[in-house]
Write a structure and sequence with these properties.
This protein is mainly β. It has helices at residues 19-44, 66-72, 123-129, 263-266, 325-331, and strands spanning 46-52, 55-61, 82-84, 96-100, 103-109, 112-118, 139-141, 153-157, 159-170, 174-183, 187-191, 196-207, 210-223, 228-235, 237-239, 245-259, 282-284, 295-298, 302-308, 317-321, 334-341. Strands 16-20-17-19-18-21 form a six-stranded mixed barrel.
Length: 342
């Protein structure tokens, strides 16, 4: 049997490994591996904050993304719940995850009423999330920037406008000008007025199909109106039949009748309501139009004094006293100019 070379025999030549020393080295290696594993675990573990409707807690996790952490914590999200950041976002140490639970509210839109849930902060945001499109003329009750609260009733009011072109008359103006050839108080139309025409653009506004307003937004004149010209008498001197110039302050056109103290006319009353004798020059008037005691000049009759009244004499009516029954019959009933003298 050959002998083991001296350099391979224990205690001879190069030093060898004893059983005790090998075990020690193995234990040291294992300790290093365990330390590395423990350090890796500690490094992989993340501390994050979770806030659900304002309730906050701190957790530690080995999950890689937000969705994994929520599943690990047993947090189930409803379809309308909001979570920030997105569930697919990788987790980072110190990250804050905010969850806002959706709350129900009542939505009235386009003739329908339904209850939906939203976690949005304001009415407009919740409507956008629900797919409700708002036009530039639409509005909401309450307004879009109102904070959304649980159970709130939100109504969408659809606005619509229409325009119509219509033709309308333009009133003519009445222009007055003094004329000293006419007695004071008398007027005469010297040019007839005529209405003009215009095209008017009208805007009608509807909410949920009902008209709520209309306004004129434009107008174009097609034909200008023609003013009416009226001459206004300023002459205050009146020439009577006797050539006397009388000054008056007003002229009235009145319906005149005639009476006499003859019993066939008035039952035989010879005195007026003011106690004057009924005779030519005394006339009956409505005191609300011509005060009693007023001096007058009556066209086709002459000077007169308002000194009597009558049950049928109302408004612009005047009853002229004549001396004889025949004169009264000849005068009859006619329109006359009555001048109120100064």
């Amino acid at each position: 049997m050959d002998e083991m070379p001296a350099h391979l025999r224990p205690g001879e030549g190069a030093p060898g490994l004893s059983p005790g020393k090998g075990l020690l080295r193995a234990l040291i290696a294992l300790s290093v591996v365990c330390s590395l594993l423990a350090g890796g675990y500690a490094w992989a573990r993340k501390e994050v904050t979770i806030s659900v409707d304002g309730q906050t807690r701190v957790v530690q996790t080995l999950e890689r993304d937000v969705g994994g952490l929520l599943a690990e914590e047993g947090i189930v999200l409803a379809e309308a719940d909001l979570v920030e950041p997105d569930p697919k976002t990788p987790l980072e140490r110190g990250m804050e995850i905010v969850i806002k639970r959706a709350q129900p509210f009542v939505l009235k839109v386009d003739g329908e009423t339904r209850t939906i849930a939203s976690a949005r902060d304001r009415v407009g945001e919740a409507l956008a999330e629900a797919g409700v499109l708002l036009g530039p003329l639409d509005r909401t009750v309450p307004p879009r920037n109102t904070p959304l609260t649980p159970g709130m009733e939100v109504e969408v009011i659809r606005g619509r406008e229409e325009f119509e072109t219509i033709e309308v008359p333009i009133p003519f103006q009445v222009q007055r000008q003094n004329d000293d050839s006419l007695p004071r108080g008398q007027t005469e139309i010297i040019q007839e007025g005529r209405e003009g025409r215009a095209e008017r653009l009208v805007r009608y506004f509807y909410e949920n199909g009902e008209k709520v307003s209309e306004e004129v937004v434009g107008e174009t004149v097609i034909e200008e109106p023609v003013p009416q010209l009226v001459a206004v008498g300023t002459r205050t001197l009146l020439a009577s039949r006797g050539g006397e110039n009388l000054r008056f302050k007003e002229m009235l056109v009145m319906e005149a009748t005639a009476y006499t103290p003859d019993p066939r006319c008035n039952g035989g009353y010879k005195y007026t309501a003011t106690g004057r004798k009924a005779q030519r020059g005394v006339v009956a008037v409505d005191p609300r139009v011509i005060p009693l005691g007023t001096r007058l000049y009556v066209e086709g009759y002459g000077k007169a004094l308002a000194a009597d009244t009558g049950g049928a004499i109302k408004g612009k009516k005047i009853d002229l006293c004549f001396d004889t029954y025949e004169e009264a019959i000849r005068f009859g009933r006619r329109q006359v100019k009555v001048y109120i003298l100064e």
